[in-house]
């Protein structure tokens, strides 16, 4: 008798996490370039073929499990927002709530596994480059969601780039402070204020911000 789809998916997720955990341990101990896919599979007690059934790239073994939901998050929020909400308003509310939850998508997480992965990304250029590709995928999916709402392709790409740019700056600042040893609880008020400020700038546009003053004429 076939297994129920839910059980199959749980088993697949467990295998992905088993491979991801094994890879993270090996990359930390030996360095990304000194670990083969065969070694990861062996450490996870699966075949190399099984590893490639789940992941197409070695970098994805540690990144995909942690990042796959992040890639779709912004587009999903836009598509599922309440009547009367703007895309940026919905994303602001989503991020404020995610800060409360200390969700990794905000950078305000001191979960040991999250910190391990962040340290590895910051010290491994190949992983940082792959992370940037995930971010590009997220921006593209957000733009597609905005096009569905009636925005032109150029407008959608511009909006998506601005929203994601804001998000990346906020995440980088929160991550920097957490990795420096600050408590997420101590950072949280600043993170909320920064998010509110950032989305206020988005909502109102840059306007006269930082307009260079005209020198006063002297008699």
Q: Summed up, what is this model?
A:
The chain is mainly α and 219 residues long.
Walkthrough of the structure:
The chain is mainly α and 219 residues long. It has two domains: 1-56, Arc Repressor Mutant, subunit A (Orthogonal Bundle), CATH 1.10.10.60; 59-204. 72% of the residues lie in helices and 0% in strands. The chain is built from nine helices and no strands. It has helices spanning 5-30, 37-43, 48-54, 60-79, 87-100, 112-123, 125-148, 153-179, 184-204. Helix 1 (5-30) packs across helix 4 (60-79), helix 7 crosses helix 8 and helix 8 (153-179) packs antiparallel against helix 9. The chain starts with a helix and ends in a 15-residue tail after the last helix.
The overall pLDDT average reads 92
Number of strands: 0
Roughly how much helix do the residues carry, as a percent range? over 70%
Total number of distinct structural domains:
2
Morphology call: globular
Largest sheet features: none
Protein traits:
219 residues, mainly alpha, Arc Repressor Mutant, subunit A, 2 domains, globular
Q: What is the fold's blueprint, element by element?
A:
Elements: H1 5-30, H2 37-43, H3 48-54, H4 60-79, H5 87-100, H6 112-123, H7 125-148, H8 153-179, H9 184-204
């Amino acid at each position: 008798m076939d297994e129920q789809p839910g059980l199959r998916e749980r088993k697949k997720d467990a295998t992905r996490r088993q491979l991801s955990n094994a890879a993270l341990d090996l990359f930390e101990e030996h360095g990304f370039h000194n670990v083969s896919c065969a070694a990861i599979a062996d450490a996870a007690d699966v075949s190399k073929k099984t590893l490639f059934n789940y992941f197409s790239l070695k970098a994805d073994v540690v990144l995909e499990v942690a990042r796959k939901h992040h890639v779709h998050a912004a587009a999903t929020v836009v598509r599922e927002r309440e009547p009367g909400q703007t895309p940026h308003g919905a994303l602001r509310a989503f991020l404020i709530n995610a800060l409360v939850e200390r969700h990794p998508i905000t950078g305000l997480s001191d979960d040991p596994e999250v910190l391990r992965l962040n340290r590895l990304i910051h010290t491994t250029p190949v992983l940082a480059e792959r992370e940037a590709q995930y971010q590009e995928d997220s921006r593209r999916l957000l733009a597609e969601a905005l096009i569905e709402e009636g925005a032109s392709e150029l407008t959608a790409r511009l909006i998506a780039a601005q929203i994601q740019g804001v998000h990346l700056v906020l995440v980088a600042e929160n991550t920097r402070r957490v990795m420096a040893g600050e408590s997420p609880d101590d950072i949280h008020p600043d993170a909320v204020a920064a998010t509110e400020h950032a989305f206020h700038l988005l909502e109102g546009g840059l306007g006269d911000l930082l307009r260079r003053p005209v020198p006063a004429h002297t008699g």
